Amino acid sequence: MARKQVNEMSFLDHLEDLRWHLIRICAAVVICGAVAFFFKGFIFETIIFGPKKMTFPTYKMLCDIATYFNMDTTMCAAELPFKIQARKVATQFSAHIWTSILAGFVVAFPYVIYQLWRFISPGLNPNERKNSRGFIIVSSILFFLGVVFGYYIITPLSINFLGTYSVSAEVSNEFDLDSYIGLVRASVLACGIIFELPIIIYFLTRVGLVTPQFLRKNRKVALVLILILSAIITPPDVASQIIVAIPVVILYEVSIYISKFVVKKETKKDLKHV
């Protein structure tokens, strides 16, 4: 009955339905962002500026590894040789607002996915909805894993490399607040989205745009693209690029098995209807 009603909906009705889902998403992000706004000390001192401090867990771990292998590294320095400053009158307030909204989006992500799923699910039959029941949980877990990876791996590697890089002793590193937060934001969100690769492949396979054979055939091309992507979101050193590339390659291989599972299931379904 629900599926019939969905099919009978006009294009404008679908747009109206989508509009209300988007309104709910925006409301959730704004509410979570408003709550985050009042935790300014924790968000900025602990989270945003955490990777700037050499007491950050990633630096300690990498310093211990470098010490064990007797390697020279900037990970064991007392502090990072750069300062963060605000050059415009409204920079700090603007950074506070947009950082709160970003925090609100991250916290509200499961609800965002839930609303998108509510928009899509009426067009599926009961069996398809049943098989996709774990979509919200899986996609949320993958996103949060990506966020954690971006924050604890990509962000400190980027900040340490760029913060200690110097072309001359005559030049001091004094980064603008917007630039620093932009680096943290890009690292976290990029990894969060990249970790959604298995979900993306699942739906591309469902609509017939991707097959496991296609993914296997283009594995080398995918590897090159992954390395390029790693070079874009990480500092230009081989070690950082490899660290980023490894989980993405693993996700790609997992996506192949997911695509194979979907195709196998669709084939069985087609055979039942023959």
UniProtKB/TrEMBL annotation:
Subunit architecture: Forms a complex with TatA.
Topological relation to the membrane, as annotated: Multi-pass membrane protein
Top-rank taxon: Bacteria
Keyword Transmembrane belongs to the record: yes
Native source species: Aurantibacter aestuarii
GO BP field: intracellular protein transmembrane transport; protein transport by the Tat complex
Chain segments annotated as transmembrane: 21-44, 95-114, 135-154, 186-209, 221-236, 242-263
Name of this chain's protein: Sec-independent protein translocase protein TatC
PANTHER family listed in its UniProt record: SEC-INDEPENDENT PROTEIN TRANSLOCASE PROTEIN TATC (PTHR30371), SEC-INDEPENDENT PROTEIN TRANSLOCASE PROTEIN TATC, CHLOROPLASTIC-RELATED (PTHR30371:SF0)
An example Gene Ontology CC term for this record: TAT protein transport complex
Function: Part of the twin-arginine translocation (Tat) system that transports large folded proteins containing a characteristic twin-arginine motif in their signal peptide across membranes.
GO molecular function: proton motive force dependent protein transmembrane transporter activity
Family that this chain belongs to: Belongs to the TatC family.
Coiled-coil features, chain-numbered ranges: none
Keywords: Cell membrane, Membrane, Protein transport, Translocation, Transmembrane, Transmembrane helix, Transport
